Amino acid sequence: MNRARPPWSLSGYCIMIFYLVPARRAEELVPSPLEVSEVVPGATLGGLYAALYQTGEVGPFSEFSAFPALVRYGKRRGFYAPFSMVESLDDLPGYRGAWGLRKECASFEWREDGGHYGLDVLCGTQKIVSIQLSSHRLTLPIRVSFPFFHVRSRGVVSYHADYAARVHLSSSSVDIPAESPLTEYGLKRKLMTTLWESTKILLHPPESEKNIVIQEGASEGIFRVGALPTDLGREPNSVENPPSVFAAQREKRRKPVVV
Known about the structure:
Number of strands: 14
Radius of gyration: 17 Å
Strand content: over 45%
Number of domains: 1
Order of helices and strands: EHEEEEEEHEEEEEEEH
Largest sheet: 14 strands, mixed
């Protein structure tokens, strides 16, 4: 099985739900030398991320992550990414090794009914989270870059992902069972729910602590906007009749994963 080396180009659906998280709560989860960055006094920005990648260098596959805090490392800011859940580690050896991020296996149950979406993420028989989402008519074309940090034995690792998509401002209901590890994250004060359709993603290779380079278009804010790759600048496909999530899952069963 060949390894697909980063950067990776992916496309599909994404759900991003943002929360205001008590800074003191987040400080218990964020390792040194990262520091929690407050967006309002006493609170930082956390969130949930779920994606169904339909095409790209690898996949199709589903991914789920949770971000306990916006953090600061020196003059840079980004989201702390402690883990990622995917459907099969065996199918994604390049993904597991390239970023050094802790990976866990999970099962994903996607549902779609018109503008209503549902997702259950389970690790074995344990439900991690259940999301119900309704997309609204208001849609914005967005191009943005999200920076991320995590810590491993060799120090701080930074990477970023460029997104180009049509984004629906949405409403959601999130159920985190009492036995889920996400209960530690303090995700109570929901700030915003978004559904990203016809999403084009460029996931960049990691940068180690010793050679972090802030690329063109970077800022010290939450997002790095601008200097996106040419292929991400193309107009995303219309979402008036987007491909069904179920169609993507059927395609997944037909198409072998090659990495």
